[in-house]
Fold these 2 entries.
Entry 1:
Amino acid sequence: MSELQPVRLGIIGAGAIGKVHIETFRQIPEVHIPALADAYLPAAEQRASEFGIDRVHATPQELLENPELDAVVIGVPNQFHAPLAIEALKHGKHVLLEKPMSIDSESARLIFETASESGKLLMMAHQMRWSALNRAIKQQVDQGTLGRIYNVKTGWVRKKGIPGWGSWFTRKDQSGGGPLIDIGVHMLDLSLYLMGNPKPVSVYGSTYAEFGPQRRGMGTWGTPNLEGYYDVEDLATAMIKMDNGATLLLEVSWAAHAAGAKEEPYVQLMGTEAGLAVSGDTGMLITHEDDAVKETAVEPLEGESDRVLMGRHFVECIRTNKEPVSSALTGYTNNRILDAIYESSRTGNEVKINW
Ligand SMILES: NC(=O)c1ccc[n+]([C@@H]2O[C@H](COP(=O)([O-])OP(=O)(O)OC[C@H]3O[C@@H](n4cnc5c(N)ncnc54)[C@H](O)[C@@H]3O)[C@@H](O)[C@H]2O)c1
């Protein structure tokens, strides 16, 4: 592909996140979106006319047959991530895959292996890594401000935010799980990235379902289906140990009696020389100076939105054959941890992760 030709991108999934991806990539001149597919054709047609997309396909398979497409975005329910990502890679397409990589680590491993064999790019859509504040935090970590990071706390506690009750979101066979795999995966991903990608080696965790099964705690994302069912957790908590001795504490919920919780994503990195925290739009650096605690606000970096920067990175990686920061390996690693938390909750035991 010549540098001057735009990347021809097909969108698979015309739902809520599909729309966000179209809006994002339309802001990147190096990308052209000629085609869109959704299993529900009216949704695809409506989205295509909204954004002036020429071709509409009733199945992803039809879209993947188009030899003119260089890459696809996959933004469909989690159960289809693995089959569609694998099919797309085998059709020679680069893939930007929505999170979580898959509903379990076994199918995530198949994506990882297929990506390696195909020579095509598979990048996970973890836009939080690209926010103005998280980039500022990452810059400080990379400059060594924290020294050795030995403990991290992260989470996203929603008090009333169950998405699409009864839809694929709350059905284990279609989603892989509840808030842990839905929003917890973002916090795991961001934390591991900021920590410098240490290898997780053991996990102890618990999950609970106290609101969802009683149809309490519904939020506004997704479309509820009261004919459907709820068999996933609504709260998860875990401790993850890394090969370098560091610990990561995670708490995440869709619904909980969490008095005082800010309901925003947070990460608190504790290092030997300093600490950095992000909570929603606020960043803070903490140091001990002359035996006194000093806290300084962290200013966000300048630049485009998180999603546009993520999209630009995808394009750059395609064009330069570069490994994306949110690589297939990081997606697979996240799925290994998620599986281990569910297993630990089921068995009551610590779960070792062997690499
Ligand atoms: N990165 C983020 O912050 C973020 C935010 C929201 C959702 N997501 C992820 O995006 C994915 C989709 O979520 P959503 O909120 O857009 O869901 P949604 O229900 O709004 O949209 C899903 C769309 O996929 C279509 N679809 C279902 N099965 C399909 C198939 N086999 N082939 C083609 N189309 C199919 C549906 O008809 C629907 O239009 C999920 O994996 C979710 O975790 C990520």
Entry 2:
Amino acid sequence: MNVLGNTEKNPKLVLSDVCKNFGGVVAARDINLEIFGGEVVGLIGPNGAGKTTLINLITGVYKVDKGKIYFKGKDITAQATYQRAIQGIGRTFQHPHLLDRCDIWTNIIMGSDMAARKKHGNKVDLDKVLPELLECAGLQAIYLDDPMSKLSYGQQKLLEVVRVLLSQPDILLLDEPAAGLNNRETQYVSDLIRYAVKHDIGVLLIEHSMELVMSICDRITVLNFGHQITTGLPEEVQNNTEVIEAYLGGGLADAED
Ligand SMILES: Nc1ncnc2c1ncn2[C@@H]1O[C@H](COP(=O)(O)OP(=O)(O)O)[C@@H](O)[C@H]1O
Ligand SMILES: [Mg+2]
């Protein structure tokens, strides 16, 4: 039986004893993680704890020093970034990676293009899916032929989530999607994550907003100096003394960049 009490499903993503050092810096030390479809796993820890490194290891931007990564039951540890993306690993970045000199529409269709490549030519039904996603992101009133510069920073971050959802990933890795966003925009992030869950996408959520993490995550993994302090239910993690110490006694709510 898995952590969700489900006996039938296998995890979509498994990290087994994953290690990564940068010179003398331990960025990941024996990390073990499982993500099931439709589950949200939070990844928290102070600045420099190794959160973004883990996303870079899962997507293949960095090679692991040791350990294995399995995706949908297959060992992908040696695969290139693009192979992992086509198979269904989607991500966003701490600062959005968009084509600044293209219009909004061009940026959006890159997502559906990826879905088509993943499904051997089957395009996403943009007429149906795109309005749903834009509404979820509070972007229903934007003009798609406007340049990217018409969007605020928060809107650009939300658009990046819309784009990756259009690629129909199995696993979605979100690197601080709510950082720099106001309360209303943070609510849209939450709505987009719920959309992902509804579509059986497994989500790894790196986030400093404890309100968001505690409200949406099924399980939480805590990192500190590349070490996995714990993985557990939100209430277990919140009361874990080692976790509280890792945040220098400041309390989880004060953990900011
Ligand atoms: N490409 C790299 N080269 C050297 N050191 C790196 C590199 N990427 C990350 N690091 C180091 O690894 C540690 C973890 O960084 P990072 O994963 O970005 O932390 P977080 O996302 O938790 O703030 C930090 O000490 C950082 O300086
Ligand atoms: Mg980071």
